[in-house]
Design brief:
With about 180 residues, this protein is an all-alpha fold. It has one domain (about 5-180). The protein is built from eleven helices and no strands. Helix 6 crosses helix 7 (about 95-110), helix 6 packs across helix 9 (about 125-145) and helix 9 (about 125-145) runs antiparallel to helix 10 (about 150-160). The longest helix is centred in the last third of the chain and has 21 residues, at about 125-145. The model has no long low-confidence stretch (mean pLDDT about 95). It binds fe (ii) ion (2 copies). One fe (ii) ion binds near residues 51, 73 and 177.
């Protein structure tokens, strides 16, 4: 991800996140989701909600991609990923990317284990756990969706949205996501 390249998109999403009707609009958008997906989507913070709705709006022609757009960042759990960790990640990414890579590698080492949820739970609560969630939010959301019985294609698209795209669907989601 290159934060400078998608700055106009981020400014647009920040504007959308300030809309007082955002949550009401989100309820409308969530109508296409299963009850569990619906709750996971609406549990997101205002910024992630606005971003996800903007991504999904650009993918409306494909029902599967549209749902993946709504849910792809649902792994950025509000309880784990606070504003401090978000700024830490973005600040280091912009100013000290090599340091960020070293810190992330150390966090990954500490969390090494089974799935991403398990890796997260190994870490004590705090910024290291937040960084891990930031790094693995796609897989965390995918694990949650798989547990609630969402279809395989949706789980795959969400789980791989930060990885190198392997097909046209993954590429399209990644392109729209990167622009916002
Ligand atoms: Fe993401
Ligand atoms: Fe995203």
């Amino acid at each position: 991800m290159n934060t400078w390249r998608n700055l106009p998109g981020k400014i647009w999403v920040t504007t959308l996140s300030l809309d007082p009707r955002l949550r009401a609009r989100a309820h409308g958008d969530a109508a296409c989701l299963s009850p569990g997906e619906h709750d996971l989507f609406l549990a997101m913070g205002r910024y992630d909600l606005a971003h996800s709705m903007a991504v999904a709006a650009r993918l409306e022609d494909d029902p599967l991609l549209h749902r993946a757009g709504l849910l792809h960042d649902a792994g950025k759990l509000r309880s784990e990923l606070g504003i401090f960790t978000r700024w830490l990640y973005t600040g280091l990414e912009l100013i000290f990317p090599a340091l960020l890579r070293r810190i992330c590698a150390a966090v990954e080492d500490k969390a090494a284990g089974g799935g991403s949820m398990e890796g997260m739970q190994v870490l004590p609560r705090g910024w290291r756990r937040g960084l891990y969630v930031q790094l693995h939010h796609g897989e965390i959301a995918a694990e949650m969706l798989a547990r609630m019985g969402s279809e395989e294609e949706l789980v795959r698209l969400v789980g791989r949205h930060q990885m190198e795209p392997r097909d046209g669907l993954e590429r399209r989601l990644a392109e729209v996501d990167d622009a916002l």
